[in-house]
Amino acid sequence: MKIKKIVWLLLGLVGLGLGALGAVLPILPSVPFLMLALFSFGKSSEKLHSWFTGTKLYRDNLESFVQGQGMTRRAKLKIMGTVTLLMAFGFCMMLRAGLILPCCILAGIWLAHILYFVFGVKKYNPDQES
Known about the structure:
By secondary structure, the protein is mostly helical. Helices cover 76% and strands 0% of the residues.
């Protein structure tokens, strides 16, 4: 196996592990890590990519988003909440250190993140499928 494929495989396994943890821990987001796993497995092996897209973890968290249908309200709120908590922690630490410019940059990134998930990611309601 080529070194490049091994690196993609390891990155996919890390993403899958963190995504699985994120599915059960409220503070850790699952979707970004599962997207990393999907992309990495796709680069490392078609067999792993096919296996991953068949898992319940993928179907519950990513399938509708990857298919262009959007995300459920719960998934969007979970991601926005987690990112807000993590960024607030970083913001407080930088503010305590007197780093005003990085705080402003982080606040701008947070605002862009919230605006993207509120207005840029379609809301998907699986109960109203036609």
